[in-house]
């Protein structure tokens, strides 16, 4: 179950998102293996660190909340998919080993 949803866990726990412009002429190929190629620099833009009033936190904004709220918000992103125990374990690992996560806590 966890392995089948690993990309969803990764997305729910990420600090930023990545936007792309897709060349539909290349992505629309009917034969062969689809290859995703990046040319140039990869840049992640971080939005505001606090959600606007009335909006739910996303990405890095979630890390400013208490661990229970973090789990609840991440489960809302992918309802009925992310298991609470797995999220808590990954969050705990990030809090002890990820310098960005630690910086958001201080």
Quick tags:
mainly alpha; 106 residues; 5 helices
Describe what is shown at a glance.
By secondary structure, the chain is mainly α. The chain has helices spanning 6-12, 24-27, 67-77, 84-97, 99-105.
Q: Into which percent range does the helicity of residues fall? A: 40-55%
Outline the low-pLDDT stretches. Answer: none
- Rounded to the nearest angstrom, the distance between the terminal CA atoms is 34 Å
Number of domains: 1
User: How would a crystallographer describe the biggest sheet?
Assistant: none
The succession of helices and strands, N to C, reads: HHHHH
In total, the number of strands is: 0
Average pLDDT, all residues: 87
The dominant shape is globular
Q: What does this protein look like?
A:
- 41% of the residues lie in helices and 0% in strands.
- It is mostly helical.
- The protein is globular and about 45 Å long.
